[in-house]
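Marked as duplicate of an earlier ticket. Keeping the data here for the record.
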Amino acid sequence: MRLSRAALLLGAALLPLSAQAQKAAAPAAAVKPLDFTERTLANGLRVYAIRDTGTSNVAVQVWYDVGSKDDPAGRSGFAHMFEHLMFKATRNLVAEQMDRLTEDVGGYNNASTNDDYTNYYEVVPANHLQRLLFAEADRMASLVVEPKSFASERDVVKEELRLRTLAQPYGKLFSIYFPEISYTKHPYARPGIGSLENLESATIDDVRAFHATYYRPDNAILVVSGNFDPKQLDAWVDQYFAGIRKPDRPIPRVTVTEPERTRATHVTVYEQNTPLPAVMISYPLPPDNDTDIPALTVLNAVLSQGESSRLYETLVYRDQLAQSAETYLDTKQGPGNLGVFAILAGGKTADAGEAALRREVARLRDAPVTAAELAEAKNEILTSVLRGRETAEGKASTLAASVIINGDPRASDRQLAEIARVTAADIQRVARKYLRDERSAAIHYLPAESAPAGAKGDTVAVASTVQVAPLAAPANVEIVTPAPEAERVAPPAPGAPVVAAIPAPQEIRLANGLRVLVVEKHDLPLLTAALVATGGGAADPSDRAGVGSLTADLLPKGTRTRSATQIAAQIEALGGSIGSDASWDGSSISVTVKSDQAAPALGILADVAQNPAFADEEIERARAQAIDGVTVTIKDPSQLAGLVAGRAVFGNQPYGHALSGTPESLKAIKAADIRSAYARTWQPNQATLVLVGDIAPAAAKALAEKNFAGWRSIARRPAAGTAPASQPLPEPRVIVVDMPGAGQAGVVVARPGIARRDPSFYPASVANTVLGGGFSSRLNQEIRIKRGLAYGAGSSLSARREPGSISARTQTKNPTAPETVAIMVAEMKRLGTEPVPANELEPRKATLIGDFGRGVETTDGIAGVLGAYVVQDVPLSELKAFTSKVSAVDPAAVQAAAARLLDPDRASIIVVGDAKDFIEALRKAYPKLELIPASALKLDTAALK
């Protein structure tokens, strides 16, 4: 789910605990408020700047005070569709040039539409700041809206709707039904994604009028965060933005008042592609600037943040009633909502789920939360705030949300200070005030096949009483056209590069063989600790797929001295959360906490790694949750296509089975299998402790010695990576999995790849980036931008400890699946038969370098890269060598790698969707294709049937 509005607004401020709370948790670390400057231009544009010379990047964000609530009558989804058009041409920029200015230089850009705002954001190397300011000003002042791009982007938005809402399980529950049941008068009731009918009815004149009405300097803010010279920034802002005219007409504002709900409402719907029943209860809340929001934010954390939260501990863990139980604190400029929801476990009913959710809400009304719960919630909020502000982009987003939602750039700091003063009595008070049963709106979201004979369920729609204003087109809207090429103003040249500081890990070895890697990063009081061991899902026995993943899930579920609930409560009281998982080649346990909590956090992590109990009741609980999770996954066309592709490429070899297992394989796993998986993986001589953040090497060594020096290997074993293949890989296949009623078709073209340490890794990585890495890649250009066939298309190189796979994938409407397959195959072949031009190759290399650079800006990002190097058997020197090795790749190397690794003749083609819409066309191209009904698919065998 999206971050709550309150959580996004929270800034880095000192969080003093109440006297009562201090008894239950360590004091919070002192954190400085956001340090920014602000000024307003004569045309009304508000400009905020946050300087950070510790980064080589700069974030540029423009937020407009217009969102989905402002969609015109009969045009739901309009603000979101318009967001897409802002990436097309301007008077001086050609279509997609924003991508040339960002992604092609190692940065990136994106945008989002919220109920209250539309924001456009970029991160680029700092020497490209002037170019981005020029571009943002140009599209604010002189956007070109012409029929071709309008029609193309409308098709893309339709595919996004199908992807996020119609094809995904529960997509309609969250993006359509939740707002519709929550409001009876306010335009927040309309889904931001809109509807196919409303999108189709929009006209180009509507788009031009919308831009003229809302996209103006006095309805926008500009935030620049990162490494820049303040005086130079002011000069550039004046140069590019000050001359944009401020219209003399008022800005339309929504002034609707949502009436108080005084009687509970309840609806039941039956939907296709719903693997498990779900329940959602919506409670109306005040606007985000209300004085009760801090107490509601803490209440929300008590209810659903972490595994010691009330919803998880009761519904998911104790009673095993739900596969997941969460909340969504959706606060806004106007009235918001608290969504309390659960996806039920297999065999459980929606009635039981709703009753359990209401019991937990009633507990908040009936009795105060404990001092420990209160302190834990506050510490969790603080850690979340710190993590959100590790980057220039995170700081910019926090400040911008404060301005747009609350009208105060310091709102984030103010709210965090107010959260520190929240008491248990405050939480009980707001629960009694807002979370009363008679104020609730509930929905049961059930599988279509569970409907009684003749039952159609309730109709859920935007209430007829919702008030929506028509789009009042300003008089004499200027129709902007591209400037003649000779008159077009080119973006300014980039400045001198700012060199990125690549972290240097320091290595320590304990006597028992444990490797310790330390990276100092003292800008924020944060520490990420990750214990990584070689040995993951690739080592699963052939009839026990998912045992490595299940074993990893069980590590924090009890030790010899701590129960699962005690582990969750103790780590979350420190403001962190403990996570564990298994990749193909390794397993890991990690935690991020405030650095002053490093000692107790490392003690818990060490206990979890060395002393897992694997109690029978925990095994059964984790097994049931894993089965429910897989049940949901295989209802998603794209995810199922990926699982089928793994079997098609690798057959019965390691990497071929489902990493998380299947319902059948998970049921077969015994306690002895789990203990064996643990024993072959978790040994100190094949484990590495990675510590990144606010810690000195001497302190890191002392913590490692204290917590891990006594860890002993059970027996000397080689690293449990993937054994070399003992038989040839399968021949390529073309497989169609028929999923009747699927909202879209998932398409994957996959073939064998290389190991991470293969000498051709860097040329192959560049080739993959040209093919499908980023918005400007060939696949996305051909499938999304030129034809509007999908919301996005890309490719991935999964280079592992042993040769992995390389695949192209997308999700498209069912009838266009054959066309999409043909494009993917053609682009894979083309890359190996002709050299990539330099003007395409250099930007794609910059994209790869930029993605890597942003990935190592945060503590958990650095820990993740180092952990991957460990399990993939890659030298740590690659951390500093990555940029130079990518830069050295030439066109000949790319073509050679593509000819070897992207030849589609060695690829399997997988399409999962409603086969009746495309099977005949696909069969003409591939007469030997295999058609497998989804109901008959067997992921546990290489044959798949």
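See parent ticket for discussion. Residues 506-708 form a domain with the Cytochrome Bc1 Complex; Chain A, domain 1 fold (CATH 3.30.830.10).
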